[in-house]
Amino acid sequence: DTAVSQTPKYLVTQMGNDKSIKCEQNLGHDTMYWYKQDSKKFLKIMFSYNNKELIINETVPNRFSPKSPDKAHLNLHINSLELGDSAVYFCASSHGMPATYGYTFGSGTRLTVV
Amino acid sequence: KNQVEQSPQSLIILEGKNCTLQCNYTVSPFSNLRWYKQDTGRGPVSLTIMTFSENTKSNGRYTATLDADTKQSSLHITASQLSDSASYICVVSALGYAGGTSYGKLTFGQGTILTVHP
């Protein structure tokens, strides 16, 4: 199936831990994103990579570090997790920037920090 | 500041009825406007995309309108079905520029939660 796939779907971890969320797309898109959806359902962009190059880096704590080993992968590593990091994180991809033809989102990773 | 506001926050309708969701935005410079459907526990899926010059666009039972002068958009759902129950998110893209590359910077509305009852 052609899609944007994220793993894991659910992640429960303790404060202070370091965790990673993986994202892969097989759509041949050249741009990938990480979004955070908070409890109020707002989606906010965190990072965007175009051809493995960081293009957008919104005001996100340094504890969040994206890594793009190739065009098809964009992983999100989070250090020293805090309670406020609890949210649903969505990976997305698009063809080109701006994404004239729309974005394809993954199913999300629900992160719960306890 | 770029903002997208949607109304109502939630809506309950009976199966087979029509409904209209609203989206007002203050995003500049405007690039395009999308409506997404987000089922519970899933990522958003695009329904329609409209550029500045488009007034209406349909996708099956979904019809989106855009008034670029008043900066308003609506999503009309006809003959609703139980499967239409979801969150509908209005997303407006502004043209941005960073690192020598132009990009579409998205501003998301908070969504309208639609519940269709049998």
Multimeric state of these chains? heterodimer
What is the helix/strand order of chain A? EEEEEEEEEEE
The end-to-end span of chain A amounts to: 34 Å
Largest sheet of chain A: 7 strands, mixed
Task: Tell me the overall shape of chain A.
Answer: globular
Largest interface: A-B, 27 and 27 residues
Mean pLDDT of chain A: 88
The fraction of residues in strands of chain B falls at: over 45%
Strand tally of chain A, please?
Answer: 11
Helix-strand sequence of chain B: EEEEEEEEEEE
Unreliable parts of chain B: none
Helix/strand structural class of chain A: mainly beta
Computed over alpha carbons, the radius of gyration of chain B is 14 Å
Judged by helices, strands and strand pairing, the structural class of chain B is mainly beta
* Number of helical stretches of at least 4 residues of chain B: 0
